[in-house]
Write a structure and sequence with these properties.
Bound molecules: adenosine-5'-triphosphate, magnesium ion
Number of helices: 7
Radius of gyration: 18 Å
Structural class: alpha/beta
CATH superfamily: P-loop containing nucleotide triphosphate hydrolases
Distance between the termini: 45 Å
CATH topology: Rossmann fold
Order of helices and strands: EEEHEEHEHHHEHEHEE
Number of domains: 1
Amino acid sequence: MFVFNHYNKNMENSHVIKVEKLVKRFPIGKGEFTALNGIDLQFSRGEFAGLVGPSGSGKTTLLNIVGSLDTPTEGEAFVLDHAVSRLSAKESAWLRRKELGFIFQSYNLLAVHTVFENVEFPLLLLDYTAAERKKMVMDALEWVGITDKAKSKPPQLSGGECQRVAIARAMVKKPSLVLADEPTANLDAANSHNILKTMENLNRDLKTTFLFATHDDKVISYLKRKIYLIDGKVDKDEKIINQ
Ligand SMILES: Nc1ncnc2c1ncn2[C@@H]1O[C@H](COP(=O)(O)OP(=O)(O)OP(=O)(O)O)[C@@H](O)[C@H]1O
Ligand SMILES: [Mg+2]
């Protein structure tokens, strides 16, 4: 039986993410395309980091592997000390459910459910009472400034509003690690800054680790570490000190 190795929140120096010699090739017709070409990276608890780089450089591919939604062709990604390629489907679902919040480049909201239900969904799989869930969902909707739409359904929302719901859903359980793929792509400047500040607060208060994939200058200006990917390789790894 799989025994989940609960992440020790007191281990200041442990690596939340460790990626070693990571290669990802996608089959295309009879050939293949190398999307990640030997990536070595480590992230400690409480980092506020981002993968930056041009379209097609491999940002989403790397986030998907770290989020255990995909497996590497070569090398390994460790997330909270679990080797993602060695997890069964059930184990990776468990890891995502307990410890990860994922903000997708496409929002993946459930169209037939209300905003409240969409954000509540990850909590239904955990051990909370209805009253606790209600408080957590309303808090998360407030973080992203969308409490007035709690009863609406995604098709009734604008793109930016859907994006804010997706962010609330990823953050509602206050996960150890948030993976955020272009989280501000459809937001105006004011909303982007509000959400980035909320994320910064969670990062500071709860030591939530954030890993973004982005080419948005607003997001980039908040990052404390920038990893530049070019053609599936790390071109530069820049830590911003005294921010
Ligand atoms: N399932 C797939 N099959 C084939 N090629 C793929 C697949 N997924 C991604 N790729 C290719 O891998 C490369 C990296 O894709 P990825 O989505 O990681 O880029 P990205 O850096 O996130 O770009 P963007 O900024 O546009 O979101 C791209 O050239 C893409 O076409
Ligand atoms: Mg992408």
